UniProtKB/TrEMBL annotation:
It comes from Parvularcula mediterranea. Residues 220-245 are annotated as: Disordered. Pfam families: DUF5131. This is Phage Gp37/Gp68 family protein. It comes from the Bacteria.
Length: 245
């Protein structure tokens, strides 16, 4: 599955792996799981197993076919560092990344310890941005210190869905922070003060800040269509990206 993405902070998605399992509260209403079920019902290629972890080596060359420099979100429908994805297969993904230096690859995981283990004896490609999900204090915040131990040129946090005040974050060595509320019929609301706190910490520490969305609840807590709630935080759109030079 490759195609133009509707995710505000990327351009294309590349899914050489599909399927995942839940590891923390941010997974509770996983959009990828719901989408995978619909794609299976439609008979879409790569979703024969629904949301079970599936390796799709026929997709490994997809970015090689695109010469235009592109920002790719890797595995929007999975987690590259799931324990059912062998390191030998992750190496093949990294080969594609290394051999296509015109592209940038955004790799987001909720399993940073396995990511750190993989890169303990391997070099992180310069065009691979490594990130972790930080949805709460108990599960999300501890991932930050693990990420910071991986020698990536660009590290980022996806604070989405933001489920509570995540407190004071240690952003040293972090280059980009994305914040967003949850969307969907069962979405949990995000309070404006939680998002403001992260925004202000990014400003304090000179970290690029990207406000992705309010989601299904607006800044007033009222449920509406996601599009109606928009992307403004205190009347401003935040679309900062990390420096890559």
């Amino acid at each position: 599955m490759v195609g133009k993405s509707h995710i505000e902070w990327t351009e294309m998605t590349w899914n050489p792996v599909t399927g995942c399992t839940k590891v923390s509260p941010g997974c509770k209403f996983c959009y990828a799981e719901s989408l995978a079920k619909r794609l299976k019902a439609m008979g879409a290629n790569g979703y024969d197993n629904g949301f079970q972890v599936s390796l799709l080596p026929e997709r490994l060359d997809q970015p090689r076919r695109r010469k235009t420099p592109t920002m790719w979100f890797v595995n929007s429908m999975s987690d590259l560092f799931h324990d059912k994805v062998p390191f030998a297969y992750v190496e093949r993904v990294m080969e594609t990344i290394t051999e296509t230096p015109q592209h940038i690859y955004q790799i987001l995981t909720k399993r940073p310890k396995r990511m750190a283990k993989f890169f303990a004896r391997r070099t992180v490609p310069e065009n691979a941005w490594l990130g972790v999900t930080v949805e709460d204090r108990k599960y999300g915040v501890p991932r930050i210190s693990v990420l910071k131990g991986v020698p990536a040129k660009t590290r980022f946090l996806s604070v989405e869905p933001l489920l509570e005040d995540v407190g004071n974050l240690d952003l040293e060595g972090i280059h980009w922070v994305i914040v967003g509320g949850e969307s969907g019929s069962k979405a949990r609301p995000m309070e404006a003060e939680w998002a403001r706190s992260v925004r202000d910490q990014c400003a304090r520490d000179n970290v690029a800040f990207f406000f992705k969305q309010w989601g299904s609840h607006g800044d007033d807590g009222v449920r509406r269509a996601k599009s109606a709630n928009g992307r403004e935080l205190d009347g401003q759109t935040h679309d900062e990206m990390p420096l890559t030079g």
